[in-house]
Structures are given as structure tokens and as C-alpha cells.
Design goal:
heterodimer; A: alpha/beta; B: mainly alpha; GMP Synthetase, Chain A, domain 3; 2 domains; three-stranded mixed β-sheet; 50% helix; globular
Chain lengths: 340, 291
């Protein structure tokens, strides 16, 4: 729960978090080391200095720490925890659904655990989708189209076997498809952060929502053009949001561009925990105002209502969360915990 | 017999040539972005260029393009006989270094990274984005200087040539816009209109507002990426003592090659002195995140 300076209680769903193990003990090879090192470079280059973590803590943190950073010290009411396998880089995977689900079980009503699949697994991918639905009741998945696998250097949402997986998701009610179309974090094929495959998939699967994480950066312009044409395409603000600290004017331009093309109903807050912690992001976002000249130039405004939607209401809609009921439930839990 | 002064002169010449090479995604010189780590020369006219990128995972195609462009840029100097490029700390550094040294195409050097679209098509896409970004900067500078939409869309080459734009930045954008117009033959005559689409279609007065909105998206995207890349490069190579970097920059000793104030310490290591060892102590970046 984020309490605004005027006392308003703002419902926050953190749309993008991770519970990973990138420690040297889990690294399978140089790629595992370089992967977590690159995340750490994101962390150090865009965090305020007082929010920096030591490297060892960043590589592997406990469930307690995550719970505390998100919900006790942090302002989140709920968090979507994404699964990322990277089994070619990490012995036990980077953050598998099993690891996430085990953590989530300890903190009732706080986490939404999303799955992941790789359509290049063919038939096994379909079986795995069934397994995740039956075992964990997933409502969403996170897909990395640029992930390496054997000789393959990536895949597209429009590949035939990807379409079979998406068809199954639609059938089973796994409606939220988070797609990583972001900066160079994952080894990329020639142009795996190209966003055009989203366009076709979104047209062909009207029953699914496509949440494009990192708003297609570094192809924000292409992404905006696609998103404006597809009613079921959303933008996740992870990676874009931390610029609110280091380059607030640029952030103003980016959020203005997104508000202009997508609108306030199509954007989702995400801290990308543990790359960044949510507290400072939410505080800065809530008090952020687009400078007058940029607001005039773009003809948009980041109103308090827009902020409420971005911070929680939009994700609540996509995941079928009854905000008032959830607030009451969490409130009750906190009171019980305090009484104990 | 060479002397140190001549060496410095030649190293500066290489820096100046490399300042003409841009990152295709960002349309900014590789020297200004801080990608070039070290330049060394020897008596036989060989040039060693070490470079690095913001992350281990930076796209292989862009890395290859920049390496090849740098090799060609340095080779254009009359005294250069050989160029040895070395990309460091990158997922496919070996393949790229080998490919560029042997003059292979990207497809030959990195087959598994090059399905579908050719490198030339990709280069073309980013040339278009560079064109759009430069065009927007010039149009906005003209608006600032008081030109109205009609005057801007009517403007021809000889007119733009004569226009003096206030800031150094605006003047630089104008020069770079004129360069890319010439390169593409988009304004062939003195009377050709200068504000055209990438396909060469003149932009009419009533289309200008919508056109600018589109250009704005391209610019915001590119500037955002540029900030991200600078931040990552800085975080990746920053030494334990950040103060040392500041001190090195304050002492002067800018490389002087690209004319930018990127704060890169001057590097004049000579290969016979053991370039690798020399470069490691100079690996101090002071790229401002808010450049």
C-alpha cells in the first residue's frame, strides 16, 4: 500500500518482479556470469546511490528480503513474479516457476506467479503449459523471444509452434502474455528486439493481452506505432521508469509519448525487482509532473487518476483482481500479524 | 626516424577518422560514446584499435558494423598499411575480430546470427532513423529562430545553406543533416526543397505537424537508448575509485581526436611498449550520464 502525502491509499501492483539465483554457485558458464553482471550494471547505472546493493546480495537474495523490499519497506500490495529459465546459463535455472511458487506460497495473497514456455520445445512446450495451468493455476506467462537454445539464437511470436502455444494459452485462460522486448539483456539474434511480430500475434489472438515489457526499448518508436493499432497491446514500464531519477526530462518525454500513443489505460508499473526496488520508484512517480513545455507539446497529462491506473488498477483489471476485496483481505492480514 | 610528436599526431589522426564512425542505432560517433578504448601505432604503419561496448550482449550485427566501419575509416589515412581491430568483453568477440581481420561478410563471420534480413537492410533502417532525427533537430531549430511552417516547407538547399542557427548544437545538426541529404541525393540542386521524406517526397505545410510528431518518436527513442548505453558502459567499466576518473579528466589530457568533451583520457600507447598493459591503467571513464 502506498500512502500518498495527502493520506490517500494507492493500490499498487508491481507488474514485473523476479526471485532469481544468479550466484556463482548456480552459474553454469561465462554466460551466467555475464548475464547477472549486466543486470548489475543496470542496477548501478540507474539507481540513486543510496539504493545500491552489494554485488553478492544482488546475485542471490532471500525470500524474506524480497517480501520486505516489496511489501514492508516497499509500497506494493501485490507483485507479479515472472519466471525466466535460462537453463543454458544456470545449473538450476535463473528463476523457474517452481522456485517462484515455493516462495509465493509463504506469503499468501501477495504474489501472482507467471509461467514461461519455449515454443521451440514443440510438443513438450504444450505439455508444460498444461502442467503450469494445472499445478500453479497461472494466468500469465513471460516470454523471451531472444533466448538462446542450442544453435538457435531466438524465435518469433509468429512462428508456427509459437502460434500453437498461444492458441493453447487462449483456450486455457492464460490470458496475459508478457513479452520481453527490451534492451540488450539476453543474447540476441540479429534483431530479436524487433517488435513487429507482436503486431501479427495481437491481431490473431484477440482473447489474449500482450504486455510488452520495457515498452519495446530500444524500439520505442516502432512499439508505439504498433500499440496504437492493437487494442490488446500494453506497455510495461520496467527499465523506462528508473530514468525518472537520473534523467527526469527524458522520462517526461517517454511517458508523454506513451500516454499519447497508448493512453493511461494501457501502461503497467513494474519495478523489475531486484534490479530496482519499488519504493523510490513509486514515490518519485507519484510526485512526478511532466514539465509544462513537454505537456503542451505532446498534449497529454499525467494526472493522479492516470497514476492510479498505471500503478495498480490496470494490472488488477488484466489479472481479475477485485481491488476493494483484496485491500480488505491484506488489511486483515496485517492486523492479525500485528496482534500476534 | 619517428618521434613522439609524430606519433601523437598520427594517433590524433586516427581518432579524428574514428570520430566519423557512428553507432548505427544511436547515430552518435563511437568516440563520443566512449567505445574506443585504445589506439596504438607502430613503425610499419599498423594501427591497433581496441574497442568495447556497453554490455557483453550488445547486438552482434551492430558490433560487426562498427568494427568494419572503423577498420575502413582508419585505412583511409595514407600512411596506414594495416588495421588490427580488437573488440573486448563481448559474447562473440572472437568471431567478430577474426571476421573483420579476414575481411569476411557478417554472414560468413557469424552465420547463426544472420538469418533473414541482411546487414545492408538493417543499416538502411538505421540510416533512415538517423536522417529523421537530424531533420527534426534542424526543423525545431528553425522554428526556434522564428521560421513559420510555410517558410520551413518552402525552404530549398541554397536557403538552408545560408541560414545561421544560433547554438553550436543546432549548427552541428544542420551540417549533419546536409551531409546525409548529399549522401542520399535527396536534395540534388540548389533549388531542391530540403525537407523531404526518406523516399524523397517534399513535406507540405499542412503535413508538417503530423510529420514532426513521427520524428519526435524516433528522437526520443534514440536519445533514450543513448542514455541507457552510456550508463551501462560507465557502470561496466567504472573503477572502484570514481574520484580518480574525475581527476584524470580535470587534469586535461582529453584525447582531442573527436573534439567532444567526453572526458576520455588521452591514450598514446605504442604497441612495442605492450599495449594491453598500458590500456588497463587508462581504463577510466567519466562519461556524464546526463550528457
Amino acid at each position: 500500500m502506498f500512502v500518498a502525502p495527502n493520506g490517500e491509499q494507492v493500490f499498487v501492483v508491481d507488474g514485473h518482479t523476479h526471485f532469481w539465483d544468479g550466484s556463482p554457485a548456480n552459474q553454469l558458464n561465462i554466460h551466467g556470469k555475464q548475464f547477472i553482471d549486466c543486470f548489475y550494471a543496470y542496477h548501478t547505472s540507474l539507481s540513486p546511490p543510496e539504493k545500491l546493493w552489494p554485488k553478492e546480495q544482488f546475485e542471490k537474495y532471500s525470500a524474506e528480503q524480497m517480501y520486505n523490499d516489496l511489501f514492508v519497506d516497499g509500497p506494493d500490495d501485490m507483485a507479479i513474479v515472472q519466471s525466466t529459465y535460462l537453463t543454458e546459463f544456470y545449473k538450476n535455472g535463473f528463476n523457474t516457476i517452481d522456485r517462484n511458487a515455493e516462495m509465493a506460497k509463504r506469503y499468501k495473497d501477495r504474489f501472482i506467479v507467471n509461467g514461461a514456455f519455449d515454443p521451440r520445445d514443440g510438443e513438450r512446450a504444450l505439455e508444460y503449459i498444461h502442467y503450469m495451468k494445472e499445478t500453479f493455476g497461472i494466468k500469465g506467462v513471460k516470454l523471451y523471444t531472444a533466448e538462446w537454445k542450442g544453435e538457435s539464437r531466438g524465435w518469433k511470436l509468429t512462428d508456427a509452434n509459437a502460434y500453437r502455444c498461444l492458441e493453447l494459452c487462449q483456450k486455457l485462460g492464460i490470458t496475459n502474455i508478457h513479452v520481453h522486448k527490451g534492451p540488450t539483456i539476453i543474447p540476441l539474434d540479429k534483431d530479436a528486439f524487433d517488435v513487429h511480430d507482436v503486431d501479427h500475434a495481437a491481431t490473431d489472438f484477440q482473447g489474449l493481452n500482450f504486455i510488452i515489457e520495457h515498452c519495446g526499448l530500444p524500439r520505442l518508436d516502432d512499439f508505439c506505432w504498433i500499440a496504437v493499432q492493437e487494442t490488446n497491446v500494453y506497455g510495461g514500464l520496467a527499465v523506462a521508469l528508473p530514468f525518472i531519477h537520473s534523467r527526469p526530462r527524458y522520462f517526461a518525454e517517454v511517458i508523454s509519448e506513451l500516454l499519447f500513443w497508448l493512453g493511461e489505460d494501457k501502461l503497467l508499473f513494474g519495478s523489475d525487482y531486484a534490479i530496482w526496488t519499488p519504493r523510490w520508484l513509486v514515490e518519485k512517480f507519484w510526485s512526478f509532473e511532466i514539465p509544462e513545455d513537454i505537456r503542451k507539446e505532446h498534449g497529454v497529462d499525467l494526472s493522479l487518476q492516470a497514476k492510479r491506473k498505471i500503478l495498480g488498477l490496470n494490472a488488477a483489471r488484466l489479472y481479475g483482481i477485485d481491488v476493494e476485496a483484496q485491500k480488505a483481505k491484506l488489511d486483515q492480514q496485517v492486523r492479525v500479524a500485528a496482534a500476534e | 626516424m619517428r618521434n613522439n610528436q609524430q606519433d601523437d599526431q598520427r594517433v590524433s589522426e586516427v581518432w579524428a577518422r574514428l570520430a566519423l564512425v557512428t553507432d548505427p542505432e544511436l547515430d552518435e560517433p563511437v568516440t563520443e560514446l566512449g567505445f574506443v578504448e585504445r589506439i596504438a601505432i607502430d613503425d610499419a604503419g599498423a594501427v591497433d584499435i581496441d574497442f568495447r561496448l556497453p554490455s557483453f550482449w550488445c547486438a552482434a550485427n551492430f558490433a560487426f558494423l562498427m568494427a568494419d566501419d572503423m577498420r575502413r575509416a582508419a585505412l583511409a589515412l595514407p600512411w596506414v598499411r594495416q588495421v588490427r581491430l580488437r573488440l573486448e568483453d563481448h559474447m562473440v568477440a572472437d568471431e567478430i575480430n577474426r571476421g573483420v581481420a579476414l575481411g569476411l561478410s557478417f554472414q560468413e563471420a557469424l552465420r547463426e546470427f544472420a538469418p533473414g534480413e541482411s546487414l545492408e537492410e538493417l543499416r538502411e533502417t538505421f540510416r533512415r532513423k538517423a536522417f529523421q532525427r537530424r531533420q527534426e533537430a534542424v526543423i525545431l531549430a528553425l522554428k526556434d529562430a522564428g521560421y513559420d511552417d510555410q517558410a520551413i516547407t518552402d525552404m530549398d538547399l541554397k536557403w538552408l545553406d545560408r541560414v545561421t542557427l544560433g547554438s553550436a548544437d543546432a549548427a552541428r545538426h544542420k551540417r549533419r543533416y546536409l551531409e546525409i541529404l548529399a549522401e542520399r541525393g535527396l536534395a540534388a540542386h540548389a533549388e531542391s526543397r530540403v525537407f523531404v521524406t526518406w523516399a524523397g517526397q517534399p513535406i507540405e505545410r499542412l503535413e508538417l505537424a503530423a510529420h514532426l510528431r513521427k520524428l519526435r518518436g524516433v528522437r526520443i527513442n534514440m536519445e533514450f537508448n543513448s542514455a541507457l548505453c552510456r550508463g551501462l558502459l560507465d557502470a561496466r567499466y567504472r573503477q572502484g575509485d570514481a574520484g580518480a576518473g574525475q581527476a584524470a579528466a580535470a587534469d586535461g589530457g582529453h584525447c582531442g581526436g573527436c573534439g567532444a568533451s567526453c572526458g576520455k583520457p588521452r591514450v598514446t600507447a605504442r604497441s612495442e611498449q605492450g599495449g594491453v598493459a598500458a590500456s588497463s591503467v587508462e581504463r577510466i571513464e567519466t562519461l556524464p550520464l546526463d550528457a
